[in-house]
Design goal:
The protein has about 70 residues and is an all-alpha fold. Helix content is about 70%, strand content about 0%. It is built from 2 helices and no strands. The radius of gyration is 28 Å and the shape is rod-shaped. The chain starts with a helix and ends with a helix.
C-alpha cells in the first residue's frame, strides 16, 4: 500500500514539474510578433504625439464633413 502512495506522489511530482518546465519553455519560445500595417491603415502605435494630433484633427474634420452632407 505504501508503494502505491509513494508511486502516486512521485508521478504527481513529475507532472507538476513537467507542467512548470513546459510553461517556462513555451513562455520563452513565444517571441513578440511585429504588427503588420497594411497599406491604407494608420499605424497609431508608432506615431509621435504631433503625428497623432494631426491624425486626430484630420479624423475630426472628416467626421464633420460627413455630418454636414
Amino acid at each position: 500500500m505504501l508503494k502505491i502512495v509513494f508511486g502516486f506522489l512521485f508521478f504527481m511530482w513529475l507532472g507538476v514539474h513537467y507542467y512548470i518546465v513546459t510553461g517556462i519553455y513555451h513562455g520563452l519560445a513565444d517571441t513578440p510578433k511585429e504588427t503588420v500595417v497594411e497599406e491604407g491603415q494608420v499605424d497609431y502605435e508608432n506615431m509621435t504625439p504631433e503625428e497623432l494630433q494631426k491624425a486626430f484633427d484630420a479624423m475630426q474634420k472628416e467626421q464633420q464633413e460627413n455630418l454636414a452632407k
